[in-house]
Design brief:
This protein has a domain at 28-136 and 156-204. 8% of the residues lie in helices and 49% in strands. The chain has helices at 223-229, 247-261; strands at 26-47, 56-57, 68-88, 95-112, 117-134, 143-145, 152-154, 158-176, 179-204. The longest helix has 15 residues, at 247-261.
């Protein structure tokens, strides 16, 4: 059962009870990028000389390093889309074959023999093909005016967007021709999206409420008080011990006792 609008305070939050929200106060028209199709690219790449393949990339080896010792990890992953080629598919309206070229960049951290932290910049260029992708062209052509601009500037209403989650799965220091290199094994997920700027009619309650009170400062806790409240740590690690006797032995011993107590002596029975 929905509640009264007078008792409802509109604010962002999770809808944890279905059917309890009041009716919206208005229908509003908003201009947003709408996703018409999306596709997942999942790859695990390691270093190998020669042309790039689905599992190797020649740019996953660093420049020669001076006395590297320990690989620490990778950080600051970024992706940038360089070019998109849209090839129409015959007899499939608005479906296209996409050829996307993008660059993944990141930093790899390592420690040298002098215990100094250093980093190496990696940048790999990749090309992928999506064979069947719904990517319609926008019917309306748009232009927008910007503040402090003399004229109108055309807007791209249909765009390809990339979102990535990446991680370095392995890093290995190798030696080749008296030089030391850092080879990275990279794993990443990329979601390719076709977005078109459209106007949507959506129900709304009101503007997002403005906080009435300023943010409360977090009191700085005394370090010694925090230490005194913390539990006593374990002084020894957990032991990985196996049982001295198999669990089935106890059941077998009881069964053997029952057989001995209820056995038939036959000819060896003592005479009364």
């Amino acid at each position: 059962m929905s509640i009264s609008f007078n008792k409802f305070v509109p604010r962002p939050g999770r809808v944890n009870k279905q059917g309890c929200l009041p009716d919206p106060s208005e229908l509003v028209c908003v201009e947003v990028p709408k996703v018409f199709d999306q596709c997942l690219i999942k790859k695990c790449l390691s270093y190998c000389e020669g042309p790039d393949t689905n599992t190797t990339d020649c740019e996953l080896r660093s420049n020669p390093l001076e006395n590297p010792k320990i690989f620490l990890g990778c950080r600051d992953f970024k992706i940038s889309l360089k070019s998109v080629e849209k090839i129409p598919i015959p007899r499939k309206k608005d479906y296209k074959k996409l050829v996307i070229c993008y660059v993944i960049s990141f930093y790899a951290d390592y420690v040298d023999c002098n215990a100094v932290n250093k980093s190496e910049f990696f940048e790999i260029n990749r090309e992928d093909v999506i064979w069947n992708f719904y990517c319609p062209d926008s019917v309306a052509k748009m232009s927008s005016s910007r503040m402090h601009s003399k004229g109108l500037e055309d807007c791209d209403t249909s765009m390809i967007k990339l979102e990535m989650v990446a991680d370095a799965l392995h890093g290995e220091i190798t030696k080749c021709d008296d030089n030391k290199f850092l080879d990275i094994t990279l794993g990443y997920y990329i979601v390719v999206k076709c977005q078109i700027i459209v106007q949507l009619l959506i129900p709304a309650y009101d503007y997002c409420p403005i906080p009435k009170e300023p943010c409360q400062p977090e009191p700085e806790e005394n370090i010694c008080n925090r230490f005194n409240k913390s539990p006593v740590p374990k002084f020894y690690p957990n032991q990985n011990l196996e049982p001295l006797f198999p669990e089935s032995d106890e059941g077998e011993d009881e069964a053997n006792d029952d057989e001995m107590n209820g056995c038939d002596y036959g000819e060896n029975d003592p005479m009364e």
